[in-house]
């Protein structure tokens, strides 16, 4: 598709600090090419002091919106005109959609994780036990995705008080799910169908893990360990999970799905997740 002379190509951005090593530009450029849409995607390093000005700068013709990454996902909320239900519930925005000068905040990490878990073969049986490691923004997105699928969640975090704060936010009378916070030794490992690492332990450090392998040994064989970390491609947690007879996946699928959902929100184009995975060189072996 080409644009009339003089019309600026649609633009989208990533605001993060640091931003240089982001994988988002390669995914979104591949998506523009696949959809045969003109458009550019640029990762910008935005220090916290410059966030408000950067967000205000999105309110101009030609801008589709922006992704947000660390440390901006929570701080952006008050700068926007409206929020999706997911962004409100999670308390974090990873996607801003611009239309006619108005900025709408969404959270595609939550549905991105949901879709990645389904791709990884997770069966979403109602009332299944899930253990979430970590208590930052990614853990909040994970809890939102899981309780939306009527899973019972136990949050385990190095700092127990932060896990307890998440559980307190999701105490809903007569709900089809439960959210608890427990120290690792008291979590229901023997009945877990899924363990999600939403902590940053293991990120860029192949020797670091958020969890003693002794806990993995208590998880039923065949359960899934989903590590949101994707660098390195096989984290220590994944290695130890596989050694314990569990299935394990890294976070590239979530990264691809959250990008796919953001791209669809900006352009209306439903680009297959394989385009985003190919841009990451991450198409699962089972898909050829
Ligand atoms: N795959 C994806 O698409 C995707 C999307 C979003 C996020 N992520 C990943 O998810 C991770 C968390 O992101 P976030 O935004 O939630 O970060 P965050 O807000 O900084 O939270 C980090 C969490 O990790 C815990 N933690 C850090 N180091 C640890 C260690 N050595 N052992 C145990 N726990 C440790 C922290 O515990 P304390 O509370 O005790 O400090 C905290 O709960 C990052 O690795 C990020 O890259 C991936």
Automatic annotation (TrEMBL):
Pfam families assigned to the protein according to its UniProt record, in alphabetical order: SDH_C, Shikimate_DH, Shikimate_dh_N
Domain (Shikimate dehydrogenase substrate binding N-terminal): residue spans on this chain: 14-96
EC numbers for this chain: 1.1.1.25
Matching Gene3D superfamilies: Leucine Dehydrogenase, chain A, domain 1, NAD(P)-binding Rossmann-like Domain
Annotated binding of NADP(+), by residue: 134-138, 157-162, 228, 251
Keyword Oxidoreductase among record annotations: yes
Record key words, sorted: Amino-acid biosynthesis, Aromatic amino acid biosynthesis, NADP, Oxidoreductase
Catalytic function, reaction form: shikimate + NADP(+) = 3-dehydroshikimate + NADPH + H(+)
Residue positions binding shikimate: 22-24, 69, 94, 109, 230, 258
Positions of the SDH C-terminal domain: 251-280
Quinate/shikimate 5-dehydrogenase/glutamyl-tRNA reductase domain sequence ranges: 127-172
Top EC class, one word: oxidoreductase
Source species, domain of life: Bacteria
InterPro entries: Aminoacid_DH-like_N_sf, NAD(P)-bd_dom_sf, SDH_C, Shikimate_DH, Shikimate_DH-bd_N, Shikimate_DH_fam, Shikm_DH/Glu-tRNA_Rdtase
Pathway(s) per entry: Metabolic intermediate biosynthesis; chorismate biosynthesis; chorismate from D-erythrose 4-phosphate and phosphoenolpyruvate: step 4/7
Active site: 73 (proton acceptor)
Subunit structure: Homodimer.
Family of the protein in this entry: Belongs to the shikimate dehydrogenase family.
Summary of the function given for this chain in its UniProt record: Involved in the biosynthesis of the chorismate, which leads to the biosynthesis of aromatic amino acids. Catalyzes the reversible NADPH linked reduction of 3-dehydroshikimate (DHSA) to yield shikimate (SA).
HAMAP family: Shikimate_DH_AroE (MF_00222)
Protein name: Shikimate dehydrogenase (NADP(+))
Native organism: Deinococcus caeni
